[in-house]
Write a structure and sequence with these properties.
The complex is a heterodimer of chains A (109) and B (115). Chain A is mainly β. Chain A contains no helices and 11 strands. Chain B has 115 residues and is mainly β. Classes of the chains: A mainly beta (109), B mainly beta (115).
Chain lengths: 109, 115
């Protein structure tokens, strides 16, 4: 089965603290994973993808095939990071994204 | 604004009525996707087009739903005989194979409320 699990619906941390948003996936093919973010009153937008191996806005995510995980991390949270974060898996062939249920991240001052 | 646009942004309708939504993709994007998002959930795939061809349909897309993309440009999603369970945000996304990837760019969504 193709599935993306984000175990935390809500996550609250203080400004300057490290952040980790968890994502686990289930997929028989070669996984291509993404993190999307939705800021308040804005549309869903791509934050980063695992194949790029880049850091965006201080966030990084490493694909761990052994643990079937793609956790999103940032060493020092900022207030502007408060948003809804979705982990997504691209299904090859069908070209569809399978999303997790999302994690609402709140950064407290 | 050269991003994906959707119209209308909000739609309130009575159960049993038909509704149609429109999506205008980013110019020259050959792929177009429809997703549905209910409260507290991530977006769920409905269907996708490559140019004017509808290549994939989810089982979520019952026979009351139909999507078209004439001439491979804008797309419409029609829901016939709406039910309260159809209340959701309907998202459109588009992509092109730039750089060997198909990054999906999302529109603002159409929020449907069925009363």
């Amino acid at each position: 089965a193709q599935r993306v699990t984000q175990p935390e619906k809500l996550l609250s941390v203080f400004k300057g603290a490290p952040v980790e948003l968890k994502c686990n996936y289930s997929y028989s093919g070669s996984p291509e994973l993404f993190w999307y973010v939705q800021y308040s009153r804005q549309r869903l937008q791509l934050l980063l993808r695992h194949i790029s191996r880049e850091s965006i806005k201080g966030f990084t995510a490493d694909l761990n095939k052994g643990e079937t995980s793609f956790h999103l991390k940032k060493p020092f949270a900022q207030e502007e990071d408060s948003a809804m974060y979705y982990c997504a898996l691209l299904i090859q062939g069908a070209q569809k994204l399978v999303f997790g249920q999302g994690t609402r991240l709140t950064i407290n001052p | 604004d050269t991003g994906v646009s959707q119209d209308p942004r909000h739609k309130i309708t009575k159960r049993g009525q038909n509704v149609t939504f429109r999506c205008d993709p980013i110019s020259e994007h050959n792929r177009l996707y429809w997703y549905r998002q209910t409260l507290g959930q991530g977006p769920e795939f409905l269907t996708y087009f490559q140019n004017e061809a509808q290549l994939e349909k989810s089982r979520l897309l019952s026979d009351r739903f139909s999507a078209e993309r004439p001439k491979g440009s804008f797309s419409t999603l029609e829901i016939q005989r709406t039910e309260q369970g159809d209340s959701a945000m309907y998202l459109c996304a588009s992509s092109s194979p730039q750089g060997g990837t198909y990054e999906q760019y999302f529109g603002p969504g159409t929020r449907l409320t069925v009363t």
